[in-house]
Design goal:
232 residues; alpha+beta; 2 domains
Length: 232
């Protein structure tokens, strides 16, 4: 797919004339709020997955499976190529982010966080903890649908010094007074249709379509929405 056709599909999604498969009408608000960079990358990921499956089936002469690692590798390459052509690929991102958005203030398994005192947003380099890049991008859209208080808006893509593919996004800076309780988390997610999955950890929740992970009590209450989630 060329940049022009991806842009056209992106605009159709933004203006509501086209939907992305797998999302209901309400969830499309989360897709659009993440911005055109996320939408374009999702289009590339979907096309890459479908093309890979079609070529595998044609070669085998029958239905043949494609592993998640193959899909992930192909999606990363395709999104990087598109992002470079689009001008939203950021080489040497740590230096660029520090210069434009402030120093790195935190780093965990999922994200590196940059922040300049006084700004209203943080900048994150978010790596994929999902089976494929496409699933990781879908999780951003679903986050925005469920938790519009801390919308993630994708502004670019990069690879860090370790070669890990990362999505660059902004998110509102939230200052908190105290840590959340289990009861408060239960109440928050119950209003959105989720309940504890009963695994004994008390941090994972499920609904009829989705599940939430890592709703940790050690995080400030207003940061509880910085969770991860995937489609069932």
């Amino acid at each position: 797919m060329d940049v022009q056709s991806i842009d056209k599909q992106t605009n159709n999604i933004l203006n509501g004339t086209t939907d992305l498969s797998g999302f209901n009408q309400q969830e499309h608000a989360g897709i659009c709020s993440a911005g055109p960079s996320l939408i374009g990358a999702l289009i590339v990921c979907n096309h890459t997955r479908e093309s890979l499956a079609a070529s595998r089936n044609a070669a085998a002469g029958q239905a043949a499976g494609v592993s998640n690692w193959e899909i992930d590798e192909a999606q990363e390459k395709a999104v990087q190529k598109w992002a470079e052509e689009k001008g939203i690929w950021v080489p040497q991102s740590e230096e660029w982010l520090t210069r434009h958005y402030g120093p790195k203030i935190a780093q965990g398994a999922e994200a590196k966080v940059y922040y300049r005192t006084g700004d209203t947003s943080v900048i994150k380099e978010r790596t994929s903890i999902y089976a494929t890049l496409g699933r990781a991008l879908e999780a951003i859209a679903l986050h925005n649908f469920l938790f519009p208080e801390t919308i993630m808006r994708v502004i670019g893509f990069t690879r860090d010094n370790d070669g890990l593919f990362r999505t660059i996004l902004t998110q509102p800076y939230v200052e908190c007074r105290r840590l959340a309780t289990k009861q408060e988390i239960d109440s928050l997610v119950a209003k959105k249709g989720f309940h504890d999955n009963g695994d004994g950890n008390g941090v994972n929740y499920i609904s009829d379509r989705l599940h939430l992970e890592d709703m940790q009590l050690t995080k400030p209450i207003l940061f509880q929405i910085f969770h991860t989630f995937v489609s069932l």
